[in-house]
């Protein structure tokens, strides 16, 4: 979720301070096979960031450069030996290219610098690395395909692939997307940031791809 702190008035250009947002992401992994089906871990992720999708655009509007930069906090809300917490500042330039058929290709690497890392996960950088390499292909009123790659130390790699198909283009004729995901790597939970997850395929629904 994101909330814009200042809304520009209609009919005029956006001022720089009107691009500030508050954001919140929460990720919970649910053990459906365990006794009583507990949540394995939950990551709470509030953020403050500045974002624009049109920092620069070519004359024919085919090329567009945006940026998202800010500060975020991540923790699992637990105490004692299970406590995990860290903060980072990041910058994410995003280069978009619009094809003639209306499809859009995007390349948006997110570069992070960590601070305030707890002793319990002091080596987080060795598993997550500093850069999220992200590619995205968005069809005009069709599929949305994205890929994420992280490279930690000593060949610690994380790969995630996502495919979204609009439910409007299925027999359900609903808002939202059918969501397919492949994940292999580290860092899905703060509690298990240093544990490699086996290859997994997921099926679900998403409101926004």
Q: What does the secondary structure layout of this molecule look like, with pairings?
A:
Blueprint: E1 2-4, E2 20-30, E3 39-57, E4 63-75, E5 85-98, E6 104-107, E7 110-115, H1 124-128, E8 131-138, E9 144-151, E10 157-166, E11 177-185, E12 197-206
Antiparallel strand pairs: 1-2, 2-3, 3-4, 4-5, 5-6, 5-7, 6-8, 7-8, 8-9, 9-10, 10-11, 11-12
How would you explain this protein's 3D organization?
With 209 residues, this protein is mostly beta strands. Helix content is 2%, strand content 55%. It has one helix at residues 124-128, and strands spanning 2-4, 20-30, 39-57, 63-75, 85-98, 104-107, 110-115, 131-138, 144-151, 157-166, 177-185, 197-206. Strands 1, 2, 3, 4, 5, 6, 7, 8, 9, 10, 11 and 12 form a 12-stranded antiparallel β-sheet that branches. A hairpin with a 5-residue loop joins strand 5 (85-98) and strand 6 (104-107). The longest helix is centred in the middle third of the chain and has 5 residues, at 124-128. It is globular, with a radius of gyration of 19 Å.
